[in-house]
Amino acid sequence: MPLSFWRLALSRAGPLVGLACLGTLAVVVARQQSPLPWLIVLVAWVWAVRSARNDLRQDRVLSESVDQLFVTVERWGGGDLNARVYLDSDDPLDALAHGMNRVAEVLAERTRDLMQDKNRLEAILSSLSNGIVIVDRALYITLVNQAALDLFQLPPQGTVGRHVIEVIRATAIENGLQAVTRSGQPQVIEWSPDPTSDTLVECSMAPVQQDGGGFGAILVARDITAQRRLDRMRTDFVANVSHELQTPLTTIIGFAEALADDTPPPEDARRYLSLIHDEAGRLSRLVDDLLALSRLEHHSLPARQEPVELGGLLDQVRLQLGPRAEAAGLQFTTHVEGHPVALGDRDLLHEVLINLVSNAIQYTQPGGRIEGRAAVAAEGVKLAVADTGIGIPGGDLPRIFERFYRVDRDRSRRSGGTGLGLAIVKHIIELHRGLLTVESEPGRGSVFTVTLPAAPADRTD
User: Fold this and answer.
1) Sorting pLDDT into bands at 50, 70 and 90, what band is 374?
2) For the whole prediction, is pTM greater than 0.85?
3) Does residue 133 contact residue 219 with C-beta atoms inside 8 Å?
4) Phi, psi dihedral angles at 207 (to 5 degrees)
5) Are 454 and 313 in the same domain?
6) CATH at 189
7) Which of 212, 215, 140 is nearest to 179 (CA)?
């Protein structure tokens, strides 16, 4: 047996031994008058008292150690893993305290790792442009990111823990998630929050293995409205450019064949040749505009950054297109306020004015007015072209800058327009980091306004 065992046994047996000695000595004393029994009695009493005191002290130390362990465990349970137990080296619970401290250190380290992973995951989810919603097998939401809150217009609080149909009121999404949790197979659906609008959301759903068995689901929602609109514009562009190219080519081929098949009268031949020349010129302008638009879209068209005095630019355009406006029975004037000087490419800005004024002449009835305006503004300089023409219906306004989009197709073709002028204007202004807006009312005319960066004062002198 170890020495510590015997020490503990003797300390616990001390009072009993003392009492036994007292009883024995009481009998001896009663029979003889020797001092030795009294000495033994005294030693027994001292031993008994010391044993009792030692027991009380050890019990008190043990009780305090247990209380300290209990308090520390309570702090750990409350999340304070930095709490530690410190006992005396001779405390019988010191080894246990060291073991508990080591466990707390490991738990704190694992908790830090988990918090770092959690923060990293939250940062990734919050930075995603796609909406993320994770549900359990019963379709209760366990995680949602900010993009999903914005996309589905959900409140920032109180979403997690609720059934998906309570917050995303879309039967199609609920049915898709339910199919994923039951079959474990991914699903993809397209959903529109408002049937009256063109907003479209693509919802990709995939299974997520649950700890207790079965599947939850993760929903990735992506707004594909702009993509579908772009696809539609691309399809329309291909159809429109094919039609625009086919029309002059048909005219050229038809009259060329008429000239080749027989010898028409001179006046008919001259008319045929004039039509072939006009359509070939239209085809050439169309190709030129397509090439210019392509270069603008890819920023391969060189753009200088130089001061451009807008008043002088307006005067130049008025000299160029004034005769055409007079021939159409229109009054073309200019108005300049202050000394507006833009920072940009003079040739490209000249192209902007030519297109805007040409459109104004084309869509304004005889007797109408066209005015070119330039002024200094708080946000830079402004350049505007206003007319009293036929105006643009509200439903057409969002699309007038699309390639080949025309409000009045017959009028545009008769004037020789390519249908690309406003698209070119838009890209030139974007290249200058400017802003292009339009205000129009059917029957009352239109105002196209361009806002451009102003040239620095040291470059306008």
Assistant:
1) very high
2) no
3) yes
4) -75, 150
5) yes
6) 3.30.450.20
7) 215
